[in-house]
Amino acid sequence: MKKKAKKKSKVQLARISKRKGLIEWSRKVRDRDEKCVVCGGILHLNAHHILPKENYKEFMFEVLNGITLCPTHHKFGKYSAHKNSVWFACFLKENCLEQYQWAVENMGIA
Fold first, then answer.
1. pTM of the model as a whole
2. Main-chain phi, psi angles of 67, to 5 degrees
3. CA-based torsion, 58, 61, 64, 66: positive or negative
4. What are phi and psi of 48, to 5 degrees?
5. Which of 26, 49, 53, 96 has a CA positioned 20 to 30 A from the CA of residue 105?
6. Average pLDDT of each block of 10 consecutive residues along the chain (110 residues)?
7. Domain chopping of the chain, boundaries
8. Is the distance from CB of 82 to CB of 74 less than 8 angstroms?
9. Which is nearest to 74 in space by CA: 103, 43, 99, 97?
10. Kindly report the CA angle at 11 between 49 and 52, in degrees rounded to 5?
């Protein structure tokens, strides 16, 4: 007796499409930067959304909204994008001016 293949719902297909889009976005950001923009590390690189994808869905797949970070500078260190947003904003302003200006312009507070 053959099992009937379940049809994927629109929600399931949207989740798959979003996941594939994020994977592609991450690859493009990491390929562009090639290393952690803070320390130059090359292991276990992460693509970080400058403007959070939860709050700025329209920029979820925008490569300018991404920056490559090592795990320490992404989530785990005292000076990381997730733990110290003030430090991260200052770092962007001093070292990644194009992305900083893009983020400020698109936050709606410029």
1. 0.82
2. -145, 145
3. positive
4. -110, 135
5. 26
6. 65 78 95 97 97 93 96 95 95 95 83
7. 35-106
8. yes
9. 43
10. 15
